[in-house]
Write a structure and sequence with these properties.
By secondary structure, the protein is α/β, with parallel strands linked by helices. The protein has 2 domains: 195 residues, 2-enoyl-CoA Hydratase, Chain A, domain 1, CATH 3.90.226; 46 residues. 45% of the residues lie in helices and 16% in strands. The chain has 10 helices and 10 strands. The protein has a 6-stranded mixed beta sheet, with helices on both faces. A 4-stranded mixed beta sheet has the order 4-6-8-9. Bound molecules: coenzyme A. Coenzyme A (COA) binds next to strand 6.
Length: 260
């Protein structure tokens, strides 16, 4: 599929999805969100893709937020629909995806941009990155999962402070808060993301998907995460990858997983 606002490149089993609206600091307009839905749906289904790195074009921004110019015409109903569609079609799609997604935060990650990074399974940042949820400066609150995922990642107190002050934090602060797991120079960012993802891609793919589902279950209302873990753990025993993993260990060789 051809995209106007995304660049898709493949490097072995890693797929790069780069948001490519540099002149607008990669702000998420409706078209970009629709393309993200299509790109992630395709990546999760494509057997040749093992995992995804998402980043922003240019040196300045990962994503500077939802496109504010599209907000002006919305009323309460329109706002509700925008938020609900965003959750389902992009942010939850990524968070619940069956393949690992790493956000390489290469500059501003604000509003919907930080929400996008938080929907990913792992976040790393360049040392010039700035992160925040400034929606209250617009008379809004975060609407793409930010009130929930920020509190899960950094704790309720820091989340309330960040959201209510609307302050941006530095990459160093984000590392200290646990919002990102590594901070490197801008030049090293993609190499670091590839290093982490390449290691993950040597592991059993169905087990990775089971781990994502089990961890997410802890944050899903009405679902008992421990019960999910029991069920997912059991299902792993029925996979060829499990047999291969155990056989490789016993034979003192590297496992060759097929995702079966
Ligand atoms: N929506 C729409 N356009 C945006 C945008 C957004 N969230 N963020 C940046 N842009 C656009 C600017 O309007 C500008 O476009 P123009 O050149 O056509 O005027 C372009 O991107 C460059 O941004 P600019 O503000 O000139 O860059 P800067 O370096 O002075 O400031 C920011 C960078 C990130 C501090 C500033 O752009 C900003 O505050 N953006 C909005 C952040 C925000 O509130 N996000 C949450 C939205 S819910």
């Amino acid at each position: 599929m051809e995209f106007q606002n995304l660049l898709i490149t493949n490097k072995g089993r890693i797929q790069y999805i780069t948001i490519n609206r540099e002149s607008k600091l990669n702000a998420l307009n409706k078209d970009t969100l629709a393309e993200l839905h299509a790109a992630f749906s395709e990546a999760f289904q494509n057997p040749e893709v093992g995992g995804i790195i998402i980043t922003g074009a240019g040196p300045k921004a990962f994503v500077a937020g939802a496109d504010i110019s599209e907000f002006a015409a919305l009323d309460a109903n329109g706002g509700t629909q925008l938020s609900r569609r965003g959750h389902t079609e992009v942010f939850d799609l990524i968070a619940n995806g069956s393949k690992p997604v790493i956000a390489a935060v290469n500059g501003f990650a604000l509003g919907g941009g930080l929400e996008l990074a938080m929907a990913c399974h792992i976040r790393i940042a360049s040392d010039n990155a700035k992160m925040g949820l400034p929606e209250v400066t617009l008379g809004l609150i975060p609407g793409y999962g930010g009130t929930q995922r920020l509190a899960q990642l950094v704790g309720k107190g820091k989340a309330l402070e960040m959201i209510m002050t609307a302050d941006m934090i530095t990459a160093a602060d984000a590392l200290q808060y646990g919002l990102v797991t590594h901070v490197v120079s801008p030049e090293e960012l993609l190499a670091k993301a590839e290093e982490i993802l390449s290691k993950i891609l040597t592991r059993a793919p169905l087990a990775l998907a089971a781990a994502i589902r089990s961890i997410n279950a802890a944050y899903t209302d009405g679902i008992n995460g421990y019960e999910t873990e029991v069920a997912e753990f059991g299902k792993c025993f029925g996979t060829k990858d499990f047999k291969e993993g155990v056989a490789a260990f016993m034979e003192k060789r590297k496992a060759e997983f097929k995702g079966e």
